[in-house]
Here is the input.
Amino acid sequence: MKYCKKCKHIHDDKFEICTECRKPQRLYPIEEENTPVFLLSASGFEIGRVQAALESGGIPSDSVSRKNNISADAVTGSDINDRDILVPFSAYEKAYDICVGIGAIKPEGETITIQEPDAAAEDEQEEMSPAKRTTVKILSAILLIIMFCLVIWGTDFIAEFLTGLFK
Here is the structure.
């Protein structure tokens, strides 16, 4: 495996130039197991969530500010820019699996599928007839008026009771 010393992204051995940097950067072989490598970019709450998951998995991590972002820390009091999360190369695979498990990284080639509701479940729901819908609306309005009256009468009763104590 090779990595870019500037952006810390990992590349296969077949690459000679970093595909992530804006300007072509030469790739270097990873010689030490503790070489920090790029895991993902995150911002705000997501940084803390990912780092907490990595910490609970026993993986040290660090977040560094992206070079191309201007920090909003001076204006807002909190850094809302994307930050790169780096992990040691020896723990990269485990960190990647943890991030997939918590939903921070979507595995390559995987698509998100939305299940359509069953046709049987749709058949169970019946349409209300106009007469039934009107009846439900009228009863709901009457119950709402009754609730308002009870609140007003209850408040009046409590007020009368309290003024009676001080006479």
About this structure: The chain has a mean pLDDT of 82.
